[in-house]
Amino acid sequence: MLSRVGETLYWVARYVERAENVARLINVNNMLMLDLPKGVCTGWEPLIDIIGARQAYQDKHADYTEQKALRYLLVGSDNGSSILNSIIYARESARTIRDVMPRDVWEEINSLYYYVKDNQKEGLAKRGRFTYLKKIIESAHQIFGALDATINHDHGFTFIRFGSLIERADMTSRILDIRSETLITSDEAKPYENIQWISLLRSLSAYQMYRQEMGVRVQRADVLEFVMHSEVFPRSILFCLIELKTLISPLPNSTDIINLIEAVIKQLKAEDVRALKNGHLHNYMDQIQIELAGIHNALAQTYFLKPPE
Fold it and tell me: What does the DSSP assignment read for 133-174?
């Protein structure tokens, strides 16, 4: 397989995964604001932090009002991680490899692009927002489902899965970092602390699986343990890392990447994540994100960044 094709498949998966993650974040934040009393919720600022765009946002916006933040997250042309831009990047990437991309997948990506672009007013309005975001999430699931069912499970599929999982692990670490850091702990908000941790789980579509694995009670230590250490929940950091190792192992010249992943897995398993509080959790999540970036860089240098002939 040409390195260009493998890299393009990798990024198609990352962009689609990113669009789905941002859609879910917006949806859950919207529900959290309805569940918490006025003046208690942290608003939309944490979502800008989760996608790592605080400085870029502040360069052009003076505040974090719902309309400004929502437009930036949904369709902001100046936001590389907006849902619309993520789908545009996925569509343009997929277009360049249509000869290896199953037709059903291309059509679904193309349809999602037009839906997001043509119905953005629905997403910005309170009444149509839930339906708009639900459609984006369902379309992302259909794209990944169609890829799993219709594309050859060769090296190209490995890069698709790798891209999706590394994006997923990165987003999980960002949600844990920002959501736990911005948790409202005032006396007024104390009765609603449980709701905030449930919101974090729902941001990862993890609430039901958490209850199956950890029990009905939702508390900080158990949430951290589940979201970081679960080996069976597909959005936990450890699960994603184990899958990344399994995926890359059959590929040639993968020894250095495997060693990197194994080192992160070993460190993560040894960490008492239940005890991580305040700045310690933030610093640890920063380190996880740096190590994920290192895995990405190693993958690119090994398989994508081929010197010109």
Answer: HHHHHHHHHHHHHHHHHHS-SSHHHHHHHHHHHHHHHHHHHH
